[in-house]
Amino acid sequence: MSEPAVLSLPEPAPEERPVLVVDFGGQYSQLIARRVREARVYSELVPHTISADAVRARRPLALVLSGGPASVYADGAPRMDPALYELGIPMLGICYGMQLMALDRGGRVERTDTAEFGRADLRAERESELFTGLPDEQVGWMSHRDSVTAPPEGARVVAASAAAPISAFEDPAARLYGVQFHPEVVHTEYGQDVLKNFLYRVAEAPPAWTAAAVIEEETARIRAEVGSERVLCALSGGVDSAVAALLAYKAVGDQLTCVFVDHGFMRKDEAEQVVETFAGHFHVPLVHVDARERFLARLAGVSDPEEKRRRIGEEFIRVFEEEAGKLGAVRYLVQGTLYSDVIESGGSGEGVAATIKSHHNVGGLPEEMDLELVEPLRMLFKDEVRRVGEELGMPEKMVWRQPFPGPGLAIRIIGEVTEERLAILREADAVVQDEIRRAGLYRELWQSFAVLPAIRSVGVQGDERTYAYPIVIRAVTSDDAMTADWARLPYDVLEAISGRIINEIPGVNRVALDISSKPPATIEWE
């Protein structure tokens, strides 16, 4: 008698069994979600008000409770649905999350005499699930005034510091784990290993969240959503819109048409790179609109930065609508919305397409356009978008291009934008980029660029008096652009940049360095 056939079921997509990061207002909440994804486990950030029913419906592999600024015993302190503890889902509490877990489960939390901020030496039990395979002595990054002074009933203490004798506890039977330190920050030397122990050993989460998996899942989703309809994509030249376009093209092929509006404010050779990459290398249907003269004319006599942005946005809309009208009936618009955009706008991330309303970030497109959005990147962070771009075969220079503002060089000229000033700034910026890359610093910096204030100063070149423009070098380090520090560029790199700009670019006789952080300054000058 033959053996009965075995039904082989496909593995669930990573986003179908996520790790949910419950946000209690901590400054590192988004970073926790990123660290989980860096362990190749899909995660999403959810509010602490989420109900147990909503969590159950998501079928998460684990919950991670974030830190937060409140005291757990204070009036109005954020709490969570107590029914979450009854779901049997593995739970890791971090800082405030650990204290809340202790308070809810019969432990004790108190304001102690000694607060901990910054580096703390930890003594950990290697036999515990969280610290398996890690050294007994390690460094954790602390940020707390309150401490757990008695763990929940049934939990045992597995790490301690001098100021916090209960720095970690775990209760495998109840599937509850807590750490007072922040494993998500780089200053905790084995923090990512602690997270991996929780994810892999406790939650049994498979490391399946990869760039290849994202491409497979998103192309299938786009194909199902769009069907046989035509699709439009506004290419800005940035990595987000480029990766979104390539995903859409992989999904629907020639149903997609990309429109690249060259406003003339891009950096040196970037417009040509976009055209070559899409039309030449990937053979994506591309409409290249050379609108440089139109945009420059619109900015004649304008020096106010907000007015520049407004006019550039309006002109972009006009040009884009003209070109879209030539293509006939189009129903869908591809947009490079990222997960950080979704989080900041309070979006849920459900679905791929949504009618354009308040969230439209492709070149300032108007709300009234009768199109539906396709947002294949809406659940990805920036670093994940780059990895997807690499997997799709995008050139390294495009994948790892530093963030660039939509209005481009127009808002790096402080004053009226003219053809002469654009030419000077474009060449100066190219020198900055070239020397930063040559020094091997490009991917270490969040942004590095040149600024041209529309003022002139006296100089001496070739024994003659000059009256020429200055160029300001701006280079910053950052994780998310919310805050930034000025980069301590080596003197020899600064010397090379300054020497080349002054010697190679007519009309410049002075180079300065911007050493302002954000805050109080911003990264861009306008």
Structure explained in plain terms:
This protein has 526 residues and is of the alpha/beta class. It folds into 3 domains: 14-202, Class I glutamine amidotransferase (GATase) domain (Rossmann fold, 3-Layer(aba) Sandwich); 211-399, 3-Layer(aba) Sandwich (Rossmann fold), CATH 3.40.50.620; 418-513, GMP Synthetase, Chain A, domain 3 (2-Layer Sandwich), CATH 3.30.300. The protein is built from 14 helices and 21 strands. The chain has helices at residues 29-38, 52-58, 96-104, 191-202, 211-226, 239-252, 270-281, 292-298, 305-326, 339-344, 382-391, 396-399, 419-438, 491-504; strands at 19-23, 43-47, 62-65, 91-94, 108-124, 137-150, 156-160, 168-171, 176-179, 231-235, 256-262, 286-290, 332-334, 353-355, 372-374, 413-414, 447-453, 457-461, 464-477, 485-486, 508-513. The strands form 3 sheets. Strands 2-1-3-4-9-8-7-5-6 form a 9-stranded mixed beta sheet, sandwiched between helices. A 6-stranded mixed beta sheet has the order 12-11-10-13-15-14, with helices on both faces. Strand 11 (256-262), helix 7 (270-281) and strand 12 form a beta-alpha-beta unit. Helix 13 runs antiparallel to helix 14 (491-504). The longest helix is centred in the middle third of the chain and has 22 residues, at 305-326. 40% of the residues are buried.
